[in-house]
Amino acid sequence: MPFCNTPHILLVNPWIHDFAAYDFWAKPMGLLTIASMLRHHDIQVSYIDCLDRFHPRAPKTDPGARHGRGPYYKTRIPKPAGLHDVPRYFSRYGIKPQWLRDDLLRHSRPDLVLVTSLMTYWYPGVQETIGIIRSMFPRTPIVLGGIYARLCPNHARNSSGADYVADGPAEKALFSLVRRFTGYSVTPAFDPEVPDEYPYPALDLQTILNYVPLLTSRGCPFQCAYCASRFLEPKRLLRNPEAVVEEIKYWQKDYGCHDFILYDDAFLMDADRHAIPILEGILQIGTQVRFHTPNAVHIRGIDPQTARLMFETGFTTLRLGLETAEFDHREEIDVKVSEHEFKRAVNCLRDAGFKKNQIGAYLLVGLPGQKKDTIKHSIEIVKQIGITPVAAYYTPIPHTALWPKAVAASRYDLESDPIFTNNAVIPCQKQPFNWEMIRCLKELIAA
Description:
Blueprint: E1 8-13, E2 16-18, H1 29-40, E3 44-49, E4 74-76, E5 91-93, H2 97-105, E6 112-115, H3 123-136, E7 142-144, H4 147-151, H5 153-159, E8 164-165, H6 170-182, E9 212-214, E10 217-218, H7 229-232, E11 237-238, H8 241-255, E12 259-262, H9 275-285, E13 290-292, H10 304-312, E14 315-323, H11 339-352, E15 359-365, H12 372-384, E16 388-393, H13 403-409, H14 436-446
Parallel strand pairs: 1-3, 1-6, 6-7, 7-8, 9-12, 12-13, 13-14, 14-15, 15-16
Antiparallel strand pairs: 2-5, 4-5, 10-11
Helix pairs in contact: 8-9, 9-10, 10-11, 12-14
């Protein structure tokens, strides 16, 4: 039967279960965008963030420390089956279970619950979250979406406890799911192929709004062997540069936010019609902001003009997607940068005014068949050029070109359970995990 009134929909960001986790400018932007879309259609929305570092019952922390980054509250829990040989502690990251139960009780019974997911190997946190929601609202349907749901839909259907697993883009399926599970029907007021029509994400639902994740484009033109971006976003969509500048003005004027986190996979691609007009627009309005790029920027897009504009607009934490300095033998992982392009980009950034501690180059660690000498060489090359090497531990991901090699190289049966793809255990090597490799890398980087 159709609803006489609009339904009440609860959106939940679940716990992380892992050996290590840190709030590195992480916000569930997809879930908060869905919340905004629902509100835009006058649907009642509630939101619970199990990772909320600023929960009223959590230990007090400075929301401005390190521009909004910081450690999650954590509770030690048993290791998952099959990982007992790993000499590391395992924890639930986020609020205490009783806090979640109490928060659920503060809401009226929802007509539908939407739960998101991120890393595939974090699914135990999704399971626990859904289990508690189910115990509190046994008659309410629960839908799981997000990256784990899309990359491992069969596993999610069998293991998550959700009533339905959405294995496609959420924006396209959202209102059909609302109609299916609540009977409430609306005509979407936006085109999912036109990101400028989306309402801004409902960041006001967060306890504290200390930075703003910003998505100026979707998708990536590259198809790197280790990355699932093309699987998740087959089509690249660009926002209008003027619309991006207006959004920055909105968050700064209405909420006083000065830190913006670029979630783009390819911000500097096609820079003449995208990044450059955005950066020039920011300069024209004269606003003082800081930008951070945890997803990295493509090195080829850095030239004297883009380097200058990034420096003048306040890019503070700049990460380059280098992955390896083995330029002669990198075609198996990607073809996105040459040695000449890397050196030119770094010189442009330094000429523009960037300091060494502002520029980091991601280096993949733990690739199938990767030798320690290769990693050591890449670290040395990055340091010699005068910027900071940043270790990025490899996670095997289904639907990527490197997945078969990862399966063959691992001491675990990666295909049997996503838990074994956890980058914290260095899964793509035959020998058991030990701390020696990590200690050596840290010493090399710090030297």
